[in-house]
Design brief:
This protein is mainly alpha-helical. It has two helices and no strands. It has helices at about 20-30, 40-50. The protein is rod-shaped.
């Protein structure tokens, strides 16, 4: 198995990484939002479709 950060062989102590440095780089990416999946326009529209409109056209 290769380290997902630098592709070196993994170290048993830091698996799935090769070193503490690569583990810290990965943690930093999670904390800064680098691994976030962007939401598309379709996702936002789906949220509104769950709401019911009253007779005046207002969403609830």
């Amino acid at each position: 198995m290769a380290c997902p950060i630098c592709n070196r062989p993994t170290d048993k102590a830091y698996r799935p990484f090769c070193s503490r440095r690569c583990a810290d780089v990965d943690l930093g990416k999670w904390l800064t939002g680098s691994y976030a999946i962007p939401a598309g326009q379709d996702d936002a529209e789906d949220d509104d479709s769950d709401r019911a409109e009253d007779s005046n056209g207002k969403l609830h």
